[in-house]
């Protein structure tokens, strides 16, 4: 049984969750409603934002529910369904998210090394996204079929920790293919991209063509730097989770409640920080966000005027 959350921890988890909900929703709305933002990279970002939203909902639900109820779950068929959904999000979404980052790295690689050719990511986008989901589900199937929904002395539990009681070859393969392989792939691709971009000299001023090339090079560098920061954040926020799993189930090191909360908080932080990296580094995202904010303010002002007019009308009728 996990102890109740401290008020400060509750505020921290709630704040990051709201930041994730707002930031990822804004990113999704901007790309979905603006035709000029519908690029291959941005479509990959919108898929990552959806996965991050699922992860944030799963993390906040798990931490608050287990801490407030002592791990007691809902009973019956509904409890079984919710337990399987909870387990599915816990494993499918992270696998999908890291591979989306890998595909974005591959897309940047083609954009820099073969700028005049249409990348295979763009040509087969739907197939690639479908394959990512299928891959993530396939490597989560072992956890989905295991018995996590249990009835103990009349109380129902959805115990995710039992999934790792028997650390086997499948766990090693899954960890290698869904963590170390995509991260290694990203390290290699971004190293090549950085060498290509930062070894090129910025064309001097003098004609329109040189200015266009200089602007394109600066934009490519900024986009690449933005995505590298996103990958570094992923490593910082997610590596402690995987390391704690290895320590617990390979070396049999006990994972304390404090460490459990810390690792879950870090994964939640990634989903909360990630969208604001895009808003910080991308001029397009910033300008669209300002336009969205101005529209909201105008609607808010109009709403206030209408409410004021209605209240005045009511007062006149009463008189």
Task: Explain how this protein is built.
It is a single chain. Strands 1-3-2 form a 3-stranded antiparallel beta sheet. The protein has helices at 7-33, 40-69, 76-113, 120-123, 125-138, 141-145, 169-199, 208-249, 257-281, 283-318; strands at residues 72-73, 149-152, 155-158. It is mainly α and 319 residues long.
Which short descriptors sum up this protein?
319 residues; mainly alpha; 3-stranded antiparallel sheet
What are the SSEs and their pairings?
Blueprint: H1 7-33, H2 40-69, E1 72-73, H3 76-113, H4 120-123, H5 125-138, H6 141-145, E2 149-152, E3 155-158, H7 169-199, H8 208-249, H9 257-281, H10 283-318
Antiparallel strand pairs: 1-3, 2-3
Number of helices: 10
Label the overall shape.
Answer: globular
The Rg value, from CA coordinates, equals 24 Å
Mean pLDDT: 81
How would you characterize the largest beta sheet? Answer: 3 strands, antiparallel
Oligomer: single chain
Percentage beta strand = under 5%
Residue runs with pLDDT of under 50 for 5 or more positions: none
Cα end-to-end separation: 63 Å
Order of strands side by side in the largest beta sheet?
1-3-2
Alpha-beta classification: mainly alpha
Number of strands: 3
H/E topology pattern = HHEHHHHEEHHHH
Question: Helicity, in percent?
Answer: over 70%
